[in-house]
Amino acid sequence: MSRTVALLLFTQLSSRWGLRTDELPVQLPATSEAVLGGTALLNCTYPPAADLILYWTRLGPDSERNVYTYNRGEHLASHDDRAYQGRTTVPAGQPGRGDGALRLHNVTLADEGRYRCRVKSNRGMGVAETELRLIGLYHLSWLQPQLCSPSLQNVTLTCLAEGGYPLATVTIHDSTGRDYGAGTRAAKDPQGLYSAAHTADVPCSPTASYTCIVNTTLHQQNLTGTLGLEEPQPAWKGWAGVGVGIGMGVAVVVLGSGALWVSACPTPDSLPRHSGGPTRSPWHCLSFLQAGHQRRKVR
């Protein structure tokens, strides 16, 4: 019988037969957060003790999966579930001193869920749990299908948020703080990542700037940009040297150099709505951006 199985059996028998087992005060945050592809840190602290057994598990609907077992100074790697082998560590030499923090490396969406830290020592036993929630940062960009010109009062502006997690709500604000609404036209790819978009008609002002705000339950990202403006053509050139893109799904993208390029992009009406199923997002249009930044939401 393995040491980990014996530990579980001892816990059950102690409860059933009334054997004396002092409860250890194990402390664990209610939630833990990590960025996809990075390292998740699940803190677990308790009173220092000798002959310590530290047992991390992943809780499922009907069972527990072994994540990391530390038995009196030794990592019992053979007891780890195959999905976690080679991806978990605890602070060297620290579990006996009261620090049983688990580091889970290269996290994926499959790692999201509930984890349990169980400790047994010569002073008793204790258990605590935490919920691991994952963050996938979005790639933000603007889509402006038509340049602003003196003949236009408004222009359509779309903010795209691609390849992030969890599902985001997209909002557009101008520099005065005016809110042009929120939208969640979204698609989910086979890997479980989301793409979302919001489209708004905004005034064609040469001095206006707009900020795209992408909100999830865990974090916020912002991106600010200015509208693309149609440059007046010299009278003697007329339209001879200007390329004009015509047809559905064609967008003019303004680059920092001021050059004009034509790229095939979906029209706002053709953007997919969230279906709840695996659908790859077709959005691949970029425009000139003034500045962008992201920040974690303060909770």
From TrEMBL:
It is found in: Membrane. Residues 25-133 form the Ig-like domain. GO terms for molecular function: signaling receptor binding. It comes from the Eukaryota. Keywords: Immunoglobulin domain, Membrane, Signal. Residues 1-18 form the signal peptide. GO terms for cellular component: external side of plasma membrane. GO terms for biological process: regulation of cytokine production; T cell receptor signaling pathway. InterPro entries: Ig-like_dom, Ig-like_dom_sf, Ig-like_fold, Ig_sub, Ig_V-set, IgSF_BTN/MOG. PANTHER family: BUTYROPHILIN, CD276 ANTIGEN. This is Ig-like domain-containing protein. It comes from Chrysemys picta bellii. The lineage of its organism: Eukaryota, Metazoa, Chordata, Craniata, Vertebrata. The gene is LOC103306963.
